[in-house]
Specification:
With 274 residues, the chain is an alpha/beta fold. The protein has a single domain (2-124, 149-273), classed as P-loop containing nucleotide triphosphate hydrolases (Rossmann fold, 3-Layer(aba) Sandwich), CATH 3.40.50.300. The chain is built from nine helices and nine strands. It has helices at 15-27, 46-53, 90-98, 103-111, 155-169, 199-206, 208-217, 238-247, 268-273; strands at residues 2-9, 34-35, 66-75, 78-87, 114-119, 182-187, 223-229, 254-256, 262-263. The chain has a nine-stranded mixed beta sheet with strand order 2-3-4-1-5-6-7-8-9, with helices on both faces. The longest helix is centred in the middle third of the chain and has 15 residues, at 155-169.
């Protein structure tokens, strides 16, 4: 049984790290899930797994790269061929800026009813607040001079627009709440946030309009909001690098479920959306 899982995320949102860690846990039998046969092609995550084994941060996926990783997993008594596209996050920026999806992305969207939306909150820029702009003498030289304030769409608006583009490509009827697509909003690099709050509250505080849009367009039973730290901590010190080298990358990382419960089995994320 093929089940396509579409992981959506901008650059540096931890997509490849998660998939690499997910596979490593499967082969080390550190998961309730398992592989029911060997994986045919691991080229999508080979470099990331090697980097993590050496205690290094994996390099971002090349912008023009697009490879499907097929993981033959077993969930209880059910065998599922899980198709996980690995792609350069810059492709997401291109979709947002052009408001178009190419044929490959269109096929991926239409063929998948399970979406995981990766958001790294520390990479989200604050919305422009004109009340915080200081007007100086340079702005007011000459009575006819116009004060120019640089404008760009906020990251929050861009994420909402991205979901709108995907829903449009899926031919979603906005008269009804979504009952076909399962969506998991995953707040990645959770360790950076240094919080004990539940993921939904964290999303509400940081991206309230995005949460409102999602809850307005998805049925509650098809929506989950989860925290994820695929690495557990940054690999920016010799001490942390040595932990990975000595103990293995598969022993690190954790998931924060909707109720705030923390589990070290990050593969449960897949169970949450299947």
């Amino acid at each position: 049984m093929n089940k396509s899982l579409l992981i959506i995320g901008k650059p540096h949102s931890s997509k490849t790290v998660f998939i690499a860690q997910f596979y490593s846990r499967l082969i080390k039998r550190k998961s309730k899930l398992s592989l029911y046969k060997p994986v045919d092609d691991l080229s999508a995550i080979t470099a990331a797994r090697e980097a993590l084994a050496n205690g290094d941060e994996p390099e971002p996926t090349f912008p023009d790269r697009s490879v499907n990783l097929m993981l033959p997993i077993q969930v209880g008594g059910q065998k599922i061929d899980l198709i996980c596209p690995d792609y350069g996050g810059e492709q997401i920026n291109t979709i947002i800026n052009s408001r178009e999806v190419n044929n490959k992305w269109l096929d991926a969207i239409k063929e998948s009813d399970n979406w995981i939306f990766f958001i790294r909150l520390n990479n989200i820029s604050e919305q422009l607040d004109i009340s915080k702009i200081t007007v100086t003498a340079e702005h007011t030289k000459g009575s006819s001079e116009v004060i120019e304030i640089p404008y760009s769409i906020s990251d929050q608006s861009a994420l909402i627009e991205l979901l709108q583009i995907f829903l449009h490509s899926k031919e979603h009827d906005y008269h009804f709440k979504n009952s076909k697509i399962k969506l998991a909003v995953v707040l990645t690099c959770w360790d950076e946030l240094e919080t004990e709050e539940r993921p939904k509250l964290v999303l509400q505080k940081n991206l309230p309009l995005l949460l409102n849009f999602i809850e307005s367009n998805w049925k509650a039973e098809n929506l989950k909001i989860i925290g994820l730290s695929a690495q557990g901590f940054p690999l920016d010190s010799e001490e942390n690098k040595e932990k990975y080298q000595n103990e293995g990358s598969e022993n690190f990382g954790y998931l924060v479920k909707e109720d705030g419960q923390k589990t070290n089995d990050i593969t449960e994320l897949i169970s949450e959306v299947l």
